[in-house]
Write a structure and sequence with these properties.
single chain, alpha+beta, 3-stranded antiparallel sheet
């Protein structure tokens, strides 16, 4: 998906060419078909080739994945997910990062989220 988000669109051959230690062409096509069945990509016909395009922009896709991760691994707890992300960094947060997080928390308080 990252490759499709970067390029905007790609054929199976494009994807295979850009993947490190790429699987076979058939495996790449199968993966793209699965992504299409799940609604993440769609294809356009370009002569005999299929050109794959993301169905959603990167931001919308990332929000959906993040909601799924929070629900699956943190029992829906935003607090637990945020704590895990902070702990996993292995380094201190910068003053700018802390300020931005405080602003987001304050906005959530005001909005009653």
């Amino acid at each position: 998906m990252d490759l499709l988000f970067r390029r905007g669109k790609a054929t199976a051959a494009d994807v295979q060419r850009e993947l490190p230690d790429a699987p076979s062409y058939s495996a790449v096509r199968a993966l793209l078909r699965i992504l299409e069945e799940k609604g993440h990509v769609r294809h356009e016909q370009d002569g005999p080739r299929y050109v794959y395009v993301p169905r959603h922009d990167r931001h919308k896709a990332s929000q959906s994945v993040l909601r799924h991760v929070v629900q699956t691994f943190f029992d829906g707890s935003t607090e637990q997910a945020m704590a895990a992300l902070i702990d996993a960094r292995g380094q201190s947060l910068t003053d700018d990062e802390l300020r931005r997080m405080a602003e987001l928390i304050e906005r959530a308080r005001k909005e009653g989220a």
